[in-house]
Amino acid sequence: MFGANAGLGRFVQYYADFADYPRMVAGILYTGLVTFLAMTLLDRVRRRSLFWLR
User: DSSP string spanning 1-54?
Assistant: First the structure.
């Protein structure tokens, strides 16, 4: 994530290099939010498709 030239990791690294910490923290929080939502969605899909594992 941090080795890329574009994306959220680059956003966070760019602002960390210039000590713009509010934007850096916003990028980290946004990354966490996107990850949380993706994991929640995938968990719902898993529960729905693998109903016999409940």
Answer: -TT-SSSHHHHHHHHHHTT-HHHHHHHHHHHHHHHHHHHHHHHHHHHHHTGGG-
Sort 4 into a burial class: Cβ within 10 Å, 0-12 / 13-18 / 19+: exposed
What is the value of pTM for the model shown? 0.73
Burial 12-43 (b: 16+ CB within 10 A, else e): bbebbeeeeeeebeebbeebeeeeeeeeeeee
pLDDT per position as a tens digit, 9-53: 888 888 888 998 999 899 899 999 999 999 999 999 999 998 887
